[in-house]
Amino acid sequence: ITKESIVDVEAMVRKVEQKIESCSQQDVELHIERIFVISQAEPRLPLQLEDAVRPDGEGEEEGRATVNQDTRLDNRVIDLRTTTSQAIFRLQSGVCQLFRDTLTKKGFVEIQTPKIISAASEGGANVFTVSYFKSSAYLAQSPQLYKQMCICADFDKVFCVGPVFRAEDSNTHRHLTEFVGLDIEMAFNYHYHEVIDSITDTMVQIFKGLRDNFQAEIQTVNKQFPSEPFKFLEPTLRLEYTEAVAMLHEAGVEMGDEDDLSTPNEKLLGRLVKEKYDTDFYVLDKYPLAVRPFYTMPDPNNPKYSNSYDMFMRGEEILSGAQRVHDAQLLSERAQHHQIDLEKIKSYIDSFRFGAPPHGGGGIGLERVCMLYLGLHNVRQTSMFPRDPKRLTP
């Protein structure tokens, strides 16, 4: 019988005197009477499962094979059978479930938004254009505009889980051209920090749920990819952007107070925060207005800054969010400042002409959350069938 064939086994289950160390069931064994082959696998497999779960480095020392990433992804169906892949995607399912359950308990409504849209949702050029009958359309970079429209339509708190498309030629360890967005939007009463508190508490509930209910999966992944347990504080640490820049200055980084954070500086800041506060999860608040999208609310006390925030896990950004401009006049001015054609976003701006409560939200990348929680080094490990500038199959 070839490896990886599907079989039915008729056997007696018997207790053993000594524990079987190499199996998950350690105190019983099967005494086989008959085997039925249900589906025969081809004799030559493109990769061996035992090679695919071997920790990096271990195979090299002993002269045994390890499987590279392209081979895994080209033969994803077999790679997904490994104990590591099974654990990763069961945990990912848990993240979605915890996200939905936590927000539903908080009174949020799940919505579904269109993915074929008439104008670029982020106002940038990094969109996929698709032919749409006799004209062109775009694949949505974010459900942003529709979440906001729902807030204007008296859905007080909304969330959605769905695909997001980014036409960025980014061949990095953390970028994909299609990923799953976990998006949140809510009206607030007094201060946009109500939104931050809601999102951070949701993330904390996810981290607790994973810690308490997915230990077996975490340990399985750790066998192949060892990492430190994920640490978080309750309530979540919130730093202002100027404090973060001061910490980086202290560490010898040269950057202006209103410059955006580069990826190396984000990672360095993550290490500095971990040393000082012992947490892998934190919020950076009050970003410079110049580096944020047109719909971001300026800080009323300092026009150079904004009511916007990012959230980080192990020194990498997992959420970008802000209080949104809910006044149609100010929104038009901000769009013009960013040189955006007002005609193209007319229906969006018009949404705010009939009364809109102050509101804010953010978008989280599911695959990135799973990658960073498990301490993995490539987002393709947490994307079931990843799409990037070089990969469109399987």
What key attributes describe this structure?
ligase, aa-tRNA-synth_II, nucleotide-binding, cytoplasm, alpha+beta, 8-stranded mixed sheet, Aspartate--tRNA ligase, cytoplasmic, 15 strands
* Terminal CA distance: 27 Å
Number of helices: 13
Overall average residue pLDDT = 94
Order of helices and strands: EEHHHHHEEEEHEEHHEHHEEEEEHHEH
Helical proportion, percent range? 25-40%
Major sheet summary line: 8 strands, mixed
Pick out the low-confidence regions: none
Give the spatial strand order of the biggest sheet: 3-7-8-15-14-13-10-9
Strand content: 15-25%
Q: Tell me the radius of gyration.
A: 24 Å
Care to count the β-strands? 15
The outline comes out as: globular
Oligomeric category: single chain
Give the class from helix and strand content and strand pairing.
alpha+beta
Task: Please describe what this structure looks like.
The mean pLDDT is about 95. Helix content is about 35%, strand content about 25%. α5 crosses α7 and α5 runs antiparallel to α8. It contains 13 helices and 15 strands. It is of the alpha+beta class and about 400 residues long. The strands form 4 sheets. It has an 8-stranded mixed sheet, with helices on both faces. A 3-stranded antiparallel sheet has the order 4-6-5, with no helix packed on it. The chain starts with 5 loop residues before the first strand and ends in a 21-residue tail after the last helix. This is Aspartate--tRNA ligase, cytoplasmic. It catalyses: tRNA(Asp) + L-aspartate + ATP = L-aspartyl-tRNA(Asp) + AMP + diphosphate. It comes from Ataeniobius toweri. Its EC number is 6.1.1.12. It is found in: Cytoplasm.
